[in-house]
Amino acid sequence: STGRLVVIGGGFGGASAARYARIAFPRLDVTLIEPKATFVTCPYGNLLLAGERTLPQITHSYDGLKARGVRVVQDWADGIDATAKTVRLRGGQTVPYDKLILSPGIAIRWNAIEGYNEAAAEALPHAWVPGAGEQTTLLRRQLEALPDGGVVGFAIPPNPFRCPPGPYERISMVASYLKKHKPRAKIIALDAKDAFSKQGLFQDAWNELYPGMIEWVPLNKDGRVTKVDAREKVFETELGTRHKVDVGNVIPPQSAAKIAIDAGLTNETGWVPVNPLTFESVRARDIHVFGDANIGQVMPKSGYIANSTSKVAVAAAAAALEGRPAPGPTVYFNTCYSHVGDEYGISVVGVFRPTETGFAETPNSGGVSPRGPLAQQREQRRLEALYADAWYASITKDAFS
Ligand code: FAD
């Protein structure tokens, strides 16, 4: 073996890293540490809320990785000793590494919104870290139980957070369900921002597909939720306005996952700064961090970026172990598709390059789907919904098969 590569986190970043390492660097010894037996994706969870996907359809096993020779250890990593180069598992075992790959995703900042703690999430689900699917399933059940004429409330965080278009895809998918099953219901979306990803496209679609159903309240109209009452289901804003809802989805402020914080890898922002060429932590040698946990700067916290950056990080780690220079600067692409209705998809594309200290969006690149009335864009929207399905099939294959 040319070295021991230990991967913490079997999500989009970590599973992709383990799979790619076995394919591209077959002499590496690869261990994946992940507490869950299977992985429920956040992508397409919003379609589950609309009743258009089932939990098994968005659940992936680690059997494919095992068949490739990845040693999958089902446990939590509880601590990292960067000097001894070991990972301590909750089960008591210690795992030594030559290079550590860390893609543990996000942690919710409990109580950043007053009253929003783990118990409150049982009444007002976040469904932003799906776990074994409990949170997404809970939100779906609440929507099913909503009376026609009821109110669904969303609390949406400031930047940066996991999946910039995610809350707005969710609003759209919930509206799609309500239009079919509870047409008198209303949605109020309270946002801690004044602008959001693909805003023009989303708002066009809301006006056209769900007229009068969705009220979006930006920061400058007192949109920031600062307090929740989980028992009464009330969202309270900065200026003290109280919004009573029947179903409430709180998408709370976030940080890098706990293991990254405990290992001292995060800075004052709560996210992990890295060398943009190798994804090696600037705070600890031989620990490469990518996915949502890293700052990433202008790159979105997406499964797409977690997958592509994972390969660069693994290539850099393998090169260092084999005494070769790290690969040269890479160009990153991101496409985030969103479903907003039946046969109605939209997307945003970004192109990014590493800079001295981070990443920058390449000028005059990327963009969003064309705007225009549905009558003109029907075929484009239909195709993009199909592209989204194809993207999901291919990325999950590239991570878990
Ligand atoms: P994750 O995929 O969350 O994986 C982290 C893993 O680490 C988890 O399995 C966790 O159990 C494990 N872990 C954490 N701590 C430890 C520990 N101490 N020890 C061992 N294991 C640990 N992205 C897109 O590109 N396209 C989309 O359409 C899209 N839609 C989305 C819709 C929603 C509703 C949401 C919420 C997100 C969406 N995303 C989408 C974003 C995408 O889910 C994330 O960007 C992606 O999951 C990030 O990958 P990651 O590897 O950083 O973290």
From TrEMBL:
**One Pfam family here:** FCSD-flav_bind
GO: which molecular function terms? flavin adenine dinucleotide binding; oxidoreductase activity
The keyword DNA-binding appears for this protein? no
Q: Which organism is it from?
A: Phreatobacter oligotrophus
Question: What is the protein's given name?
Answer: Sulfide dehydrogenase (Flavocytochrome c) flavoprotein subunit
Task: Keywords in alphabetical order, please.
Answer: FAD, Flavoprotein, Signal
Q: Where is the Sulfide dehydrogenase [flavocytochrome c] flavoprotein chain central domain?
A: 136-252
- InterPro entries per record: FAD/NAD-bd_sf, FAD/NAD-binding_dom, FAD/NAD-linked_Rdtase_dimer_sf, FCSD_central, FlavoCytC_S_DH_flav-bd, FlavoCytC_S_DH_flav-bd_sf, SQRD, TAT_signal
Q: Where is the FAD/NAD(P)-binding domain?
A: 4-119
Q: Which residues form the Flavocytochrome c sulphide dehydrogenase flavin-binding domain?
A: 331-400
The domain of life is Bacteria
Q: Which residues form a coiled coil?
A: none
Lineage of origin: Bacteria, Pseudomonadati, Pseudomonadota, Alphaproteobacteria, Hyphomicrobiales
Database matches in PANTHER family: FAD-DEPENDENT PYRIDINE NUCLEOTIDE-DISULPHIDE OXIDOREDUCTASE, PTHR43755
